[in-house]
Amino acid sequence: MRVSDITLATDYLNNLTAAKSKVDNLQNEIATGNKIQQPSDSPGGTSNIIQWNTQLQQMNTYFSNIDNGSSFIQDTTSTMQNIQSEITNVLNDLTSVNNAANSTNLNSFADQINQSLQTIINLANTQSDGKYVFGGTDFSAAPYAMNASNTAVAVQVSDVSGAQKITTSNNIQQQINMTGTEVFGTIVTQNGTIDSGTAIGGTVSSQTNVYDAQGNQYNFKVNYTKTAADTYRMTYDILDSSNNSVLSAPPAAETMVFNSSTGKLQTINNQTPAPIHIEVGSKNIDFSFDPTTVSEVSGTTSLNFSANQQTDIFNTLISIVNQLKAGKTPDPSLVQSVSNFNSRLTNNISKAGNIENQLSNTKNLLTNQQTQLKTMVSNVQGVDIAQSVMDLQNQETLLQMIYKMAGMVSTQSLLNYI
Known about the structure:
Elements: H1 5-32, H2 43-97, H3 106-124, E1 127-128, E2 131-132, E3 144-146, E4 153-155, E5 165-169, E6 172-175, H4 180-183, E7 187-195, E8 203-211, E9 217-228, E10 231-239, E11 254-258, E12 265-268, E13 276-280, E14 285-290, E15 295-297, E16 302-307, H5 313-325, H6 332-381, H7 385-410
């Protein structure tokens, strides 16, 4: 069978093109470190790499969030530890005050405790990365300061109960702050149950004592009026010793809806249930009312209250200072309030430590996932440089042989084929 020159030329050109293409691809792989130079090289591999790289980019955002959150909660923890050091100094001073030998030095103790108070106020206004660590989600101003008459410490912003949260993975958020309400605020919690059989239009009530900054007692009364199945209109009032309201105007009613199946509180004003901040500036009354644990059951209504403290630590210390300056040893109830705050502070430091641990554990988990994704990308995209160099040498040798064979063929004439 005679082989035509056209066939030889075509085969030669095809082989030459294929060899040169392989050499070019291997050179690009070695230069870039990537197997896939364009999507058509591996459509499936390209799709996977795009997906994995997107996940890696999201992880970089999560890592940044966690690093910022860890720094914030570390600053918060350090601040609470410094506050606790001042509280320890106050408790030591209060122990010394009860020593008869110190009865003539009450003013000196008043000055020392007042100095601790000022330090605690400054620490309560600590910032981390431009944000007040105990300011909730309101960073417009320092959250705590003496009032205009210098008789009490009051919250200077709209609310210090807001939770700061960061995204640490897909659809998962982590709180990174201890709110001012948790650390310093008075929280009055409504506990118990409301009878689901209460008639529409019927009202159930409960009441407890609350206190102003100076420790004066008031009556806090809460009413739940049923307006529909599983729905109640909640109102409240604060009454003085003469049974007169201290509110300048009746507060807006809150609509509370309970889950018909579980009985748990479902919404307050169509929002996720949360504590309600109550402040009466004219009376230096400031506390949070938390009705979120109330539930609706079939049976007898049973409601009661609990409070984390009678008055906040700032104004407790002010009362102690005032009594010392008046030549009196502080009331045991005030001393106990300081001790109770110290215990709560220990618990809050522990909570902050748990947040920091959760962030650390999440970061470790993300690091492992990041390593796995990078390995998967490398397996599809990465190049074995040593193997590619050997393959390139083989292809270059083959290419040289093709050139040589072409030279041998081109020197022959048609007489060789007759």
